[in-house]
């Protein structure tokens, strides 16, 4: 969900793609490895972890598969480790606040909007579904009866958060905050 929220922020032009990449890099650096989590949770010994890492040549994605195949890790424990790893890194939302891209209030409002409306744009007005229904194509060979012009109905728009300025941060500043 965290990455989807970050993509949403880019789509809404609240953060630049470069700023988003910087946030993702910081997030990846703050995420604990499966090997360290396995040891910390007493699922595997240091020797077992070392053996698995040597076998998979430090490829984190293959760690769980290899450890379960060799009987060093139960599948339920592997699933638990994966969930813990996802939660160990900071969220894009909290990193955006820490780096000064958003205030805590802005992050809260935008995240609530993201959860409620998903990736629908807060800048574009959308027509309700009833107005977007496909219209039947006219039959060939039958004359079309003259029609009265339909009144223009303004579509309802999704509420959008109102911010006066978008905060600006450079990737270098984001890295300094992380250190």
Please tell me how large the radius of gyration is: 25 Å
- Estimate the global geometry from the Cα principal axes: elongated
Cα separation of the termini: 25 Å
Our count of helices gives 10
What composes the largest sheet? none
Overall pLDDT score: 75
Order of helices and strands: HHHHHHHHHH
Structural class: mainly alpha
- Binned, the helix content reads 40-55%
Beta fraction: under 5%
The overall number of domains is 2
Number of strands: 0
- Taking pLDDT < 50 over at least 5 consecutive residues as the criterion, the unreliable ranges are none
Which properties best describe this structure?
179 residues, mainly alpha, 2 domains, 55% helix, 0% strand, elongated
What does this structure look like?
The chain is mainly alpha-helical and about 180 residues long. It folds into two domains: about 1-30 and about 90-125 and about 165-179, no CATH class; about 30-90. Helix content is about 55%, strand content about 0%. It contains ten helices and no strands. The chain has helices at about 1-10, 15-30, 35-40, 45-55, 60-70, 75-90, 90-100, 105-115, 130, 170-179. Helix 3 runs antiparallel to helix 4 (about 45-55), helix 4 (about 45-55) crosses helix 5 and helix 7 packs antiparallel against helix 8 (about 105-115). The longest helix is centred in the first third of the chain and has 14 residues, at about 15-30. It is elongated. The model has no long low-confidence stretch (mean pLDDT about 75).
């Amino acid at each position: 969900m965290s990455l989807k929220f970050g993509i949403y922020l880019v789509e809404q032009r609240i953060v630049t793609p470069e700023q988003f990449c910087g946030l993702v890099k910081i997030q990846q650096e703050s995420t604990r490895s499966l090997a360290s989590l396995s040891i910390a949770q007493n699922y595997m010994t240091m020797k077992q972890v070392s053996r698995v890492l040597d076998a998979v040549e430090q490829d984190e994605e293959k760690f769980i598969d290899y450890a379960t195949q060799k009987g060093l890790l139960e599948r339920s424990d592997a699933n638990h480790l994966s969930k813990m790893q996802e939660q160990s890194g900071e969220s894009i939302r909290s990193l955006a606040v820490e780096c000064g891209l958003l205030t805590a209030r802005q992050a809260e409002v935008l995240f609530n909007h993201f959860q409620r409306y998903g990736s629908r744009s807060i800048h574009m007005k959308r027509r309700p579904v009833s107005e977007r229904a496909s219209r039947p194509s006219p039959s060939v060979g039958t004359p079309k009866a003259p029609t009265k012009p339909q009144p223009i109905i303004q579509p309802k728009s999704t509420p959008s958060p109102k911010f006066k300025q978008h905060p600006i941060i450079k990737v270098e500043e984001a890295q300094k905050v992380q250190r």
